[in-house]
Specification:
The complex is a heterodimer of chains A (about 300) and B (about 325). Chain A has about 300 residues and is mainly alpha-helical. Chain A is about 75% helix and about 0% strand. Chain A starts with a helix and ends with a helix. Chain B has one domain: MetI-like (MetI-like fold, Orthogonal Bundle). The longest helix of chain B has about 35 residues. Classes of the chains: A mainly alpha (about 300), B mainly alpha (about 325).
């Protein structure tokens, strides 16, 4: 392999150069120089990954225990498993209702976002030479820097007034608030798509809408995947927006339900942890199942 | 890369591909008028955005000049809200805490994420598995993570510290060091996404650059300093700005970990606005707080961008 000969050459050239300090070959593998694996680094990364897994392990283990097993450091495995924790948490937090609400809101937000945001970005991206559209671009972009708290108080009143203090209102809000960032990344991506494809379609008589849906939208698939994932995780785990917008207790989302019942758990930690585990589980399971796809989707999108 | 429809239509190549008889129906792209469809594509979004985003910003700013309590009657008080904010120790504390928290967290998250990304990008085994593990915290709700860490800090960590003979106690109950617990929780969750971001950036660097440098006898640190760091400069810049902005809006984990306590020592700006505005009947007053918050974020983000972009250009 050229890399190995390169490294060997490096050693010989370095020996003749008295001014150059040469590191031992072991470290040239740090940046993927040689063909061998860097086991030392692998072990280091493994230890680091434990910091991620330990709190999860703790959550699972505690959720399975009975209250008398709670003493000590808490990292011991349960001596006997108390499945009732889950049943109690299920009832106390009205889990099925919260799960359904969260799922509906998330699916709605993702669908609406994917169908609309790229459309707006397309119109802007293909007309940046016009003042109106360029102005719109910066109008949407500026909102990225507007912190939510300044909108928080007024929008609560507004949604109540418009009858949007419901899950449907939340779906609309997620779609609209996502516009800023999504337009930013979609526009950049669309500008890298050659316009000849749309030209050709237009010559064949396709309308502007047709050009978008038939040509551009399919090409946006990788970007749509990234935006879809980001929106899904955002909408599913969001706490502040459901907290302030939703007025009906039966419309609660999973994080909101956790918050409301946190006070009720008192020292009933095992049930509380069972509840945490159930709240974290849905998205975690989906992630583990689609893990490669999710990570590569986010990675591909972030390079743009 | 960006070309207008007008220019392209006049090239002979495209007009030659027109099937006979269709040329009359094909749109005359040399016309200055752009298809109406583009307007229809943006107008609904603009209307919705204006209604649900811009109008709240405007009405909020308007009410910051009043003594509106969220309900009932109100009257103009001019800039007295703004003046009172600078005299309010609770508000000043929240700004101090939030900024301190955001700076520490931004630095820690970016440095740690970059380090892990470098490790993942190197010649290690099980790379995909580790990558998958490191990304897990991203899909977990920070509120629930906060509850888990709350218990850990209150019970497990003191127990472990005691068995090791170290000083034990709930970190979150200490007014001086509660922020450490909040930062740890935040970094644990936020690093996940940033690791992937940096990894994506690192993988855009061609391997040949490293090989060439190795042939020239460059040490690993030198390779990092002269190849890696400058080339991911753009990622680093954007990431620092976005992370900082996001950490300035911290809310969820503080609710879960300390609820602003002990006392009000760990209240963030967002939390003060939420509590004062919704529960304290201080709508107008907190809106003034929010306006100041907005100006601060815009100014800081702008300064950060300028500073980091200038550094990028000179390396």
């Amino acid at each position: 392999m050229s890399a190995t000969t390169g490294a060997t050459r490096a050693i010989t050239t370095a020996e003749t150069r008295s001014t150059t300090r040469m590191r031992r070959p072991v470290l040239t593998t740090l940046s993927g120089g040689n063909g061998g694996t860097n086991w030392w680094l692998t072990a280091l990364i493994a230890v680091c990954s434990l910091t991620v897994l330990i709190p999860l392990y703790f959550t699972i283990v505690t959720a399975l225990k009975s209250p008398d097993q709670l003493g000590g450091t808490g990292f011991e495995l349960p001596t006997s498993i108390r499945w009732e924790n889950f049943a109690e948490a299920y009832q106390l937090t009205n889990f099925p209702q919260a799960l359904l609400n969260t799922a509906l809101i998330t699916v709605g937000a993702v669908a609406l976002t994917l169908l609309t945001n790229s459309l707006v970005a397309y119109a802007i991206a293909r007309n940046m030479h016009r003042k109106f559209f360029k102005g719109l671009y910066f109008y949407f972009l500026a909102a990225i820097f507007v912190p939510f708290p300044i909108i928080m108080l007024p929008v609560v009143k507004e949604t109540a007034l418009l009858g949007l203090d419901t899950p449907v209102g939340l779906v609309l809000l997620y779609t609209v608030y996502g516009l800023s960032f999504n337009i930013f990344i979609f526009t950049a991506y669309i500008q890298s798509i050659p316009i000849e494809l749309e030209e050709a379609a237009r010559m064949d008589g396709a309308s502007t809408w047709g050009v978008f849906w038939k040509i551009v939208f399919p090409l946006l698939a990788p970007m749509n995947a990234t935006v879809g994932i980001l929106t899904c995780v955002w909408a599913w785990n969001d706490f502040l927006l459901p907290l302030v917008i939703l007025s009906d207790p039966s419309a609660r989302t999973l994080p909101l339900a956790q918050f409301v019942f946190q006070g009720q758990f008192n020292t009933n930690y095992t049930v509380a942890f069972a509840s945490y585990l159930m709240a974290l589980a849905p998205l975690l399971i989906v992630y583990i199942a689609a893990q490669r796809w999710v990570v590569s989707g986010v990675m591909r999108g972030s390079t743009k | 890369m960006m070309s207008t429809i007008n220019e392209r239509a006049t090239t002979p190549a495209t007009s030659a591909s027109l099937p006979a008889g269709r040329s009359r129906r094909a749109p005359r792209s040399s016309q200055p008028k752009i298809p109406r469809a583009f307007y229809w594509m943006v107008v609904p979004a603009v209307v919705l955005f204006f209604t649900l985003h811009t109008i709240p910003v405007l009405t909020g700013t308007f009410f910051s000049l009043t003594n509106y309590s969220g309900y009932g009657t109100w009257s103009f008080v001019g800039v007295s809200n703004y003046i009172n904010l600078f005299l309010d120790s609770r508000v000043l504390n929240s700004y101090g805490f939030t900024f301190f928290f955001a700076i520490v967290s931004t630095l820690l998250v970016n440095v740690i994420s970059l380090a892990i990304a470098l490790g993942l990008n190197a010649n290690i085994r099980f790379r995909t598995a580790f990558r998958g593990i490191f990304f897990i915290p991203y899909v977990l709700a920070i509120l629930v993570i906060g509850y888990v860490f709350n218990y850990l800090f209150a019970n497990s960590f003191p127990a472990i510290a005691e068995s090791l003979g170290l000083p034990a106690g709930n970190l979150l109950a200490d007014p001086q060091f509660a922020w450490v617990g909040i930062v740890i929780t935040t970094v644990w969750q936020a690093a996940a996404f940033n690791v992937i971001l940096y990894l994506a950036g690192l993988q855009t660097i061609p391997g040949e650059l490293y090989e060439a440098a190795a042939i020239d006898g460059a040490s690993s640190w030198r390779r990092f300093r002269s190849i890696t760091f400058p080339l991911i400069g753009a990622y680093f810049t954007i990431n620092m700005v976005l992370s900082f902005k996001s950490f300035l809006q911290v809310f969820d984990q503080i609710v879960a970990l300390t609820n602003g306590g002990p006392g009000t020592s760990t209240e963030s700006i967002a939390m003060v606005i939420y509590r004062g505005g919704f529960q304290g009947g201080e709508y107008g007053y907190q809106m003034a707080n929010a306006v100041i918050y907005l100006v601060v974020i815009i100014v800081l983000s702008f300064l950060q961008l300028r500073f980091l972009q200038r550094r990028e250009a000179t390396t």
